[in-house]
Design brief:
- By secondary structure, the protein is an alpha/beta fold.
- It has one domain: Rossmann fold (3-Layer(aba) Sandwich), CATH 3.40.50.
- The chain is 45% helix and 15% strand.
- It contains 8 helices and 7 strands; from the N terminus they run E-E-E-H-H-E-H-E-H-E-H-E-H-H-H.
- Strands 5-4-1-6-7 form a 5-stranded parallel beta sheet, sandwiched between helices.
- Helix 6 packs antiparallel against helix 7.
Length: 203
């Protein structure tokens, strides 16, 4: 069955040299700004949008929860930042829809479940980073069992390595071998355990 929707979960954000808000890179510095590697999600979504030209693309995220301390209240929504980046890298605006209400992964899944049902999508992909996949999967299996059958979870890193191994394989391997990523993954593993033993604070 052909993929009918590609969903991009927002990661962290930062301001670039021109003070434009953009998604985070896979770096130690950006690990301090919230969820790192958001830009990889954008690149992966662009790659998959080219592979599946009939699929809609959902940019997901409201104001966000884990934001940089310097992020002003009037900054763009996460979904709007993702949209602008997707357009910059070649996804037509006509294919992009925004999910603007969620501030956490759990809220994003709540909103996306509604959108998938309302629009009768049957074969979607949810793109996030590799380190985030186990917690996302545990959350879906626990709270959103209907999504298991209509949404495949996709690692942005795996998409990029498959598309251009020479560019991405060593960069990603170096990041995942780093101390900052070890700390990030330990937090994610703790979240998975909390979901499984019913002590996780869903919000």
């Amino acid at each position: 069955m052909e993929t009918d929707v590609i969903i991009v979960l927002s990661g962290g954000i930062k301001q670039d040299a021109s003070l434009r808000w953009v998604s985070t890179d896979l770096s130690a510095a950006d690990n301090e700004l919230g969820a790192l590697g958001g830009k990889l999600r954008v690149f992966a979504a662009t790659t998959l949008a080219t592979k599946y030209p009939a699929a809609s693309v959902i940019a997901s995220g409201g104001k966000g929860f884990d934001m940089p301390k310097n992020a002003p209240a009037d900054r763009p929504l996460l979904a709007e930042i993702l949209r602008d980046e997707l357009i910059e890298y070649g996804v037509p605006i006509s294919r992009i829809a925004l999910e603007k209400n969620s501030n956490t992964t759990y809220q994003a899944l709540q909103e996306l479940e509604k959108m998938i049902t309302e629009r009768s999508w049957h074969n979607g992909m949810i793109i996030t980073n590799r380190y985030h996949l186990p917690r996302l999967r545990a959350m879906i299996e626990t709270k959103f069992p209907a999504l298991v059958h209509v949404a495949t979870l996709v690692s942005a890193e795996d998409v990029l390595i498959e598309a251009d191994s020479a560019k991405w394989k060593s960069v990603i391997a170096e990041a995942y071998a780093s101390p900052f990523m070890a700390g990030r993954m330990a937090k994610e593993e703790q979240g998975v355990l909390q979901i499984k033993n019913d002590t996780y604070q869903f919000r």
